[in-house]
Amino acid sequence: MLIRSFPAGAFGTNCYAVASGPGAECVVVDPGMDAVEPLARMLADDGLKPVAVVLTHGHLDHTFSVLPVCDGYDIPAYLHPLDSGMLSDPARWHGPQLAPLITGVRLPDPSEVKSLDDGEVLSLAGVDLTVRHAPGHTQGSVMFSLDLGEAPGLLAGDVLFAGSVGRVDLPGGSWDDMLRSLRDVVLQLDDETVVLPGHGPATTIGRERATNPYLAEAASAPKGRGL
């Protein structure tokens, strides 16, 4: 398995390319702000040919460049339907920090974006991505499980970071949902799973289970009463 990435734009959103090896087809994950040119250079370095864009959620720092990337390579995009409103009406779903970016941004028509369903396996570019719906950061946040060869992998978007988790204070965010996703999705994964997050460095489930205070809170959260 070949994984390449770079931090895109002012928010340092990790944009990934996932392929079976050099010179192969690939899947692009979360092309954010100012990602078009650095993505093209990264793909050229390994001779990769994109066949699809998959989005972990609908926030602009992860979707900003999806339309030019999809148009430029004539490929489809995939997004969970609960986040499709972020493409059709981004101003409603983004806080003041991202508001200046909304004017003039061109995003795909949601009707042209393929839906992601929890538990489905996307077989793209010789890579199998298992969709794991994990709301909390947004209603339609997903993670993608994949086989890295030597260990399981997880493209975690903004659900889980090294030492932290995604914010829940923007429209559509929910701390109860985040705790449930951490408890019922993240903590069910093997400790050896390599976490490739939407921001910051890679980590492992085992490291986060042992050190991440938010995972500790999720592990002790009682079931029921909204959880």
| Largest sheet features | 6 strands, mixed
User: At CATH's second level, what is the architecture?
Assistant: 4-Layer Sandwich
Radius of gyration: 16 Å
Mean pLDDT: 94
Sketch the topology as an H/E string, one letter per element: EEEHEHHEHHHEEEEEEEHEEHH
Keywords: Hydrolase, Metal-binding, Zinc
Cofactor: Zn(2+)
Organism: Blastococcus saxobsidens
GO molecular function: hydrolase activity; metal ion binding
Characterise the protein shown here:
α7 packs across α9. Helix content is 26%, strand content 28%. The chain has helices at 36-46, 60-63, 66-73, 85-88, 90-93, 99-102, 175-184, 205-211, 213-220, and strands at residues 2-8, 13-19, 25-29, 49-54, 77-79, 114-115, 121-124, 127-133, 142-147, 152-157, 160-161, 164-165, 194-197, 203-204. The protein is α/β, with parallel strands linked by helices and 227 residues long. It is globular. It has a six-stranded mixed sheet with strand order 1-2-3-4-5-6. The model has no long low-confidence stretch (mean pLDDT 94). The chain has a single domain (2-220), classed as Metallo-beta-lactamase, Chain A (4-Layer Sandwich), CATH 3.60.15. The chain starts with a strand and ends in a 7-residue tail after the last helix. GO terms for molecular function: hydrolase activity; metal ion binding. It comes from Blastococcus saxobsidens. Its cofactor is Zn(2+). This is MBL fold metallo-hydrolase.
Task: List the defining traits of the structure above.
alpha/beta, Metallo-beta-lactamase, Chain A, hydrolase, MBL fold metallo-hydrolase, Metallo-B-lactamas, zinc
